[in-house]
Design goal:
4 strands; alpha+beta; 5 helices; two-stranded antiparallel sheet
Length: 166
Amino acid sequence: IGPVKSRGALCGIIIKNGYIVAEWGDTTRTDMTFSVTKSFLSTVVGLIWQKGLIRDLTDPVKDYMPAGDAAALFESPHNAKITWEHLLRQTSDWQGTLWGKPDWAHRPEGQTPADWPNRKLSEPGTRYKYNDTRVNLLALAALHVLRRPLPEFLRDEVMERLSSFV
């Protein structure tokens, strides 16, 4: 959803003790991050848990969702069993549509497109499946718990603290 920028050439920078010791490519270019988001998001959820906003990672996520559309994402008997740990480990097998994107649209399974929405569900916690829709679901759930934009929280709790080491 939204605009996607074409990727730039490889680039990087290594800073040690406040000094640039290696640099290659255009390090001033802003680029899309994609999969690194999962590392940032798991860090954010870990900090939310550490602050006590999530009591236990084995708690059902539904218990943390406000009434309305967010709670409806975990209403079905299958989705009601999903815990924070399932979402973090990508073993939830959550079924549904988020922001117009069905869960099966990312890495669909089956012989024909007609099979995709009718796949067999796995019990939460029993099967790993890399799925961006479910990662977005984790981000939405974390946002409802934190009640603050996740990028701001990441900046304040992680990135600015890391910059003090540079």
